[in-house]
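Is this the right way to post structure tokens for a design question? Let me know if I should format differently. Anyway, here goes:
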């Protein structure tokens, strides 16, 4: 099982959440790779997780819509995902989710490598009005129409994605940041992490202080 985590520019919660998921997957034998801005790797050290078992590949996904830059990011994601062939692409944020969805539409499936399942976690509500709000409503519809599963960090976001036409919507478990955690995060820290079943089902796990992991939520 291979999982590609895709994220855009992040200086806080989204990137920390991706670190937790990637570390949890790698610690349980899932091949995990992170695709996102180079600065995010410098800030959060994805490639140092679990003794270097998580790979990182730079893809410059900006925090605001930029047509030329977004087209470059889509082309790069298409090439990388076609070459890496993950079983699941898990994008974080509407922009990363929409760009990943478009890129995957151009990844041709083969007999041995079907098109990856797409999971998108929505972390924040989009801008409400103006041109930017209109762009984000389009991104919502792209994600809702193409994602196999949409996870949301709050009930209002779940309602928005259902209204946009998402077929399968669930709750994302995002733990608060722990004080004093360095880039060398333990392989299976206490708290929610995630793993993936062979069919691409996303399974949220919670690791107890004893190191035992138990299922918390399953998105079938």
């Amino acid at each position: 099982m291979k999982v590609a985590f895709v994220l855009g520019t992040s200086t806080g919660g989204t990137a920390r959440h991706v670190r937790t998921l990637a570390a949890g997957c790698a610690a349980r034998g899932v091949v995990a790779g992170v695709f996102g801005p180079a600065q995010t790797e410098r800030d959060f050290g994805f490639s140092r997780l679990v003794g270097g078992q998580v790979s990182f590949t730079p893809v410059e996904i900006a925090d605001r819509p930029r047509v030329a830059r977004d087209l470059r990011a889509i082309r790069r994601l298409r090439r990388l995902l076609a070459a890496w062939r993950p079983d699941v692409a898990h994008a974080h944020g509407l922009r990363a989710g929409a760009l990943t969805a478009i890129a995957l539409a151009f990844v041709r499936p083969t007999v041995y490598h079907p098109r990856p399942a797409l999971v998108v976690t929505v972390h924040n509500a989009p801008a409400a009005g103006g041109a930017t709000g209109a762009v984000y409503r389009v991104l919502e519809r792209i994600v809702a129409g193409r994602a196999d599963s949409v996870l949301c960090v709050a009930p209002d976001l779940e309602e928005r994605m259902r209204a946009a036409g998402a077929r399968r919507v669930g709750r994302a478990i995002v733990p608060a940041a722990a004080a004093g955690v360095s880039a060398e995060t333990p392989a299976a820290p206490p708290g929610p992490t995630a793993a993936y079943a062979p069919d691409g089902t996303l399974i949220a796990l919670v690791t107890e202080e004893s190191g035992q992991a138990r299922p918390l939520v399953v998105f079938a």
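Format looks fine. Someone answered above. Worth noting: DSSP finds six helices and ten strands in the chain. The chain has a mean pLDDT of 81.
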